[in-house]
């Protein structure tokens, strides 16, 4: 009996320490079928499931909107390369995919204004270009008149392979079979009053749902349809929400992005965006290739290069693109650019084109220009596993037993320390902010996502859980733009890296199973050791 009790306790601890078991992100915002039922086979041929290569588990949804384009959420594919995943069309049962079509992705088109570091960014929309055309029924897109006709409680239907429950105490339940749920439409005025996170929602989204009926993790990017006498029309894209089944869901409004969608399914194929990662300041160049896959000529003229929105820091060295690119033709442009300051920014190649509703097309490079943190900082961090340390113009330095941001910052200046390529594990440290102004702050990002912000005289012990094989941690100390304090900086100490608690427990359980001949029962001594491990780690964090 003791063995069973310990196994149950350890199982609970494993659930609570796993990233999948949290009720959301740090702010409980989930990128998210709750309260639904199994869909009928062949009812939703245009349903797309995004999967890793040759895998049968979807991480996001989408909708086929033409013979070679899929509509999904930007947050599903930001940071992904086309070779990282593929699309399953007409998928119903992930264990029986004989009627499904698996197609590779050629290009990814994101909305240029989508903010990848935000859990609830507007413009959460993306188009996937497939490597080949498919002969499957495509979803019909809603127009503004359709969405305007909806009233409070109007039925909408959403589908997906996401969790049917998502609870840190009860675990999670991800189905193999496509599910659907009917949700009531909620007008924006009522939506904004439903939760503080919804107060600043804009025109590009709408809300739907009720307690116990919702989309959840894994449904992101999938469709929500309006239901009327003319049939089901694709009204929105599953974007985000607060928890699952507790509050309303937020959906990207398809009709709001009608022209953007049409521009990106016109048939011009090109690599729209690339993340250069951490780079050094200096001069560089990039080649851009454009292929006209449509049946009509496409205008491409007057290319220019903008660096962080500014002219004069880039030019075109080679341009073999004619002003009218013929159907089936290909051309390329080489753009030169200069990065002069340590900052995060974007280099944009922009071409004028009357072939597109926006009047132009854009391709861009995101960059993070930093410098080496120096040998003194490297020596201070030598106990950490292999990594690279970078800083911006306001360099971090070693101050006795501490590692601290630059002092003497002017108002609205930042001092950044970036640790790149940290392996999976837990990064712990003690922090102490020295500031007389309550809005001077230390913000911490893990792999581009904000995790914590500490203000004023805050001090304490903190642990970051790093779940990727290679992770980037950014410590960004900011002196508030209206700061009146004499000086302002943050100190870090006792910086350590260790294995994730869940990984340690898994290793102990595997070793115990080997020693016991695979019987599956955990020894009492091992169980006590696991409990002691959890207690020591949690007590230190407290």
TrEMBL record:
It holds the Pfam family Trypsin. Residues 1-22 form the signal peptide. GO terms for cellular component: extracellular region. GO terms for biological process: proteolysis. Residues 33-266 form the Peptidase S1 domain. PROSITE patterns: TRYPSIN_DOM, TRYPSIN_HIS, TRYPSIN_SER. It comes from the Bacteria. This is Trypsin-like serine protease. One of its GO terms (molecular function) is serine-type endopeptidase activity. The keyword Protease applies. It is found in: Secreted. Keywords: Disulfide bond, Glycoprotein, Hydrolase, Protease, Secreted, Serine protease, Signal. Its EC number is 3.4.21.-. The keyword Hydrolase applies. SMART domains: Tryp_SPc. Belongs to the peptidase S1 family.
